């Protein structure tokens, strides 16, 4: 090739002293180029180059969009090629996405800050008590929410007010079966929470906690979503430390009638941390203490819903044991705030989320009497197996790292729940139809 270039040079650059203009040959440069290309298979190399370039542009159609971790609330940039909705939904609402909902197009001309970019969020167990309130808050924030629920204890009525909202989807699905969805965050709540429900089919309960959590962690790993586990204060069992700090490892009976739930949640926590350490999944763990509020299942055996339903029906309030066992009662809006702060924050946890105000069962019965019926009778029954004697969260970690603490007192939250229960039990609409979160006191 070098000799070729030298030769061509001598041909096209004659010495200046023997200069005489050559006759113009109009096709000379074209024929020279063709000859040049045909010599030494240069044309073949040109075609091979074109083929390689075509291949590269086919495999990587555009330069990849900058991808910022999906959890930094205001900086989420998601490649266009990722599909988060069924095709028809995507087409229908692509204009909404361009306006800042859903995936953000990094080349969008919409000025930054006009609308916050919504996330795609799965809430398993989203048709249940806590899940449905969480869904309300996420939708109100502008996120797209997919509820995954098998309706074991959840109800469509809890989320029906979102039907028709393009940012809301409901999937009947059991989390013990795998599921693939493209999302940014997974709030994993699916699991019956009341003893009546989780003892109904203990094997199913532990499957939900173990296999269901595995499936959701697998999903988080696959799509790079952040995963939040709603664990429970039950991981402390019948605690020997009071109040309970997150560093306490608990006192749990592994073979008791509550173990399907307690040990199931403990295993779920273990799986969550193992996926974090072993597979780099971003995880959060909340340990929830007794929570009450509108949309709780009536007659689900949990003490607040039991007392409220009994007082409304003029039945005696059933107290198990001597009624001196203590519990803390958190209003649902406080819990939802805590869960969202945990998901958005930088700390894995576990975090206790509960109201440290401690009540004996008899004190709770008194508050219910004050709120609903001062003449309500109290009836004592033998205590259930493995019922913890004391439960009170130490929430200093959540206060310090999440800037969170409960705002709604029992005396303020209970009336809101009572009006919801009254409507559901008697179909009474006089007390107002607000089943939403209480404003903070
Ligand atoms: N409410 C509390 O006081 C409390 C306390 C501690 C922990 N938690 C935890 O918070 C979460 C929500 O509790 P909740 O009070 O809303 O209970 P809930 O029973 O009202 O809601 C649970 C939801 O999960 C669904 N579900 C159950 N098994 C499922 C499965 N296999 N597949 C799909 N969906 C399934 C139910 O249908 C229901 O909608 C639970 O994980 C619970 O363990 C709640």
Automatic annotation (TrEMBL):
Q: Which domain of life is it from?
A: Eukaryota
Describe which pathway this protein belongs to, using the record's wording.
Nucleotide-sugar biosynthesis; UDP-alpha-D-xylose biosynthesis; UDP-alpha-D-xylose from UDP-alpha-D-glucuronate: step 1/1
* UniProt-listed InterPro entries: NAD(P)-bd_dom (IPR016040), NAD(P)-bd_dom_sf (IPR036291), UXS-like (IPR044516)
Q: Which GO terms describe its biological process?
A: D-xylose metabolic process; UDP-D-xylose biosynthetic process
Instruction: Say where the protein is mainly found.
Output: Golgi
EC class (word): lyase
Span-the-membrane segments of this chain are 42-60
**What is the E.C. number?**
4.1.1.35
Q: How does it sit in the membrane?
A: Single-pass type II membrane protein
Which Pfam families does the UniProt record give? GDP_Man_Dehyd
Q: Where in the cell is it found?
A: Golgi apparatus, Golgi stack membrane
Give GO cellular component annotations, separated by semicolons: Golgi cisterna membrane
Return the Polar residues bias intervals. 10-19
Which residue numbers delimit the NAD(P)-binding domain? 123-415
Keyword set for this entry? Answer: Decarboxylase, Golgi apparatus, Lyase, Membrane, NAD, Transmembrane, Transmembrane helix
Alphabetized GO MF terms = NAD+ binding; UDP-glucuronate decarboxylase activity
Which residue ranges does the record annotate as region Disordered? 1-24
Essential cofactor(s): NAD(+)
**What family classification does the UniProt entry report for this protein?**
Belongs to the NAD(P)-dependent epimerase/dehydratase family. UDP-glucuronic acid decarboxylase subfamily.
According to its UniProt entry, the function of this protein is described as:
Catalyzes the NAD-dependent decarboxylation of UDP-glucuronic acid to UDP-xylose. Necessary for the biosynthesis of the core tetrasaccharide in glycosaminoglycan biosynthesis.
Name of the protein in question: UDP-glucuronate decarboxylase
Name the source organism.
Gossypium mustelinum
């Amino acid at each position: 090739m070098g000799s070729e270039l030298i030769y061509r040079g001598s041909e096209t650059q004659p010495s200046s002293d023997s200069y005489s203009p050559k006759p113009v040959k109009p096709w000379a440069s074209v024929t020279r180029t063709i000859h040049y290309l045909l010599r030494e298979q240069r044309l073949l190399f040109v075609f091979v180059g074109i083929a390689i370039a075509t291949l590269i542009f086919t495999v990587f159609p555009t330069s990849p969009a900058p991808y910022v971790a999906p959890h930094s609330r205001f900086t989420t940039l998601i490649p266009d090629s990722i599909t988060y909705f069924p095709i028809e939904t995507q087409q229908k609402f692509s204009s909404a996405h361009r306006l800042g909902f859903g995936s953000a197009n990094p080349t969008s001309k919409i000025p930054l800050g006009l609308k916050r970019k919504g996330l795609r969020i799965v809430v398993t167990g989203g048709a249940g008590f806590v899940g449905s309130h969480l869904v309300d808050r996420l939708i109100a924030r502008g996120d797209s929410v997919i509820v995954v629920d098998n309706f074991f204890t959840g109800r469509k009525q809890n989320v029906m007010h979102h039907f028709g909202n393009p940012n809301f989807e409901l999937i009947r699905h059991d989390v013990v079966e795998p599921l693939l969805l493209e999302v940014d965050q997974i709030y994993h709540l699916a699991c019956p929470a009341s003893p009546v429900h989780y003892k109904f089919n203990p094997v199913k309960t532990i499957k939900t906690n173990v296999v269901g959590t595995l499936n959701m962690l697998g999903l988080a790993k696959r799509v790079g979503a952040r995963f939040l586990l709603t664990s429970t204060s039950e991981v402390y069992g019948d605690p020997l430390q009071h109040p309970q700090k997150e560093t306490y490892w608990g006192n749990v009976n592994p073979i008791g009638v509550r173990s399907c739930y307690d040990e199931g949640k403990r295993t779920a926590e273990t799986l969550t941390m193992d996926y974090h350490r072993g597979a780099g999944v971003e995880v959060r763990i909340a340990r929830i203490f007794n929570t009450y509020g509108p949309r709780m299942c009536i007659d689900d055996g949990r003490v607040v819903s039991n007392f409220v339903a009994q007082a409304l029906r003029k039945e005696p309030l059933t107290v198990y044991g001597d009624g001196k066992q203590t519990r803390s009662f958190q209003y649902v809006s406080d819990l939802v705030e805590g869960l969202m702060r945990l998901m958005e924050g930088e700390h894995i946890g576990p975090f206790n989320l509960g109201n440290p105000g401690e009540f004996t069962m008899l004190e709770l019965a008194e508050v219910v009497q004050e709120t609903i019926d001062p003449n309500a009778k109290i009836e004592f029954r033998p205590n259930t197996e493995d019922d913890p004697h004391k439960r009170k969260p130490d929430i200093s970690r959540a206060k310090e790292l999440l800037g969170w603490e409960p705002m709604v007192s029992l005396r303020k939250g209970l009336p809101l729940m009572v009006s919801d229960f009254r409507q559901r039990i008697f179909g009474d609409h006089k007390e107002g139809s607000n089943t939403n979160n209480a404003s903070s006191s």
